[in-house]
Amino acid sequence: MTASISVNDGSLSVDLRGLTNCPGVISAGRFYDHGSWVFWDVHDPTKAIAIALRDEHYSKLVIEVEDPANQVSIIRESIKRPPA
């Protein structure tokens, strides 16, 4: 799993089935992007992070968090630690 602060950069070409999109209010749901399923739950794009997944139904989660930079740091530290 990787984490980044890349957010809604306009590079997505998507199939909008199952996506709720009201510009400026919410983007939520699942959609098909370049051969993979992506899940979005974002109200404020400035607080969104993208998390790439491996061996899961969704290839990426794009979610809103309170403090994106801090949350990305926490996720990166967590994936560096060996499993318990």
Q: What is the percentage of strand-forming residues?
A: 35-45%
- Dominant shape: flat
Which value, in Å, is the CA radius of gyration? 13 Å
Q: What's the total number of strands? A: 7
Computed structural class:
alpha+beta
Could you describe the 3D structure shown?
This protein is 15% helix and 43% strand. The chain has one helix at residues 68-80; strands at 2-4, 14-15, 19-22, 26-33, 36-42, 48-52, 58-64. The protein is built from 1 helix and 7 strands; from the N terminus they run βββββββα. It is flat and about 30 Å long. Strands 1, 2, 3, 4, 5, 6 and 7 form a 7-stranded mixed beta sheet that branches. Strand 4 and strand 5 form a beta hairpin. The two termini are 17 Å apart. It has 84 residues and is of the alpha+beta class.
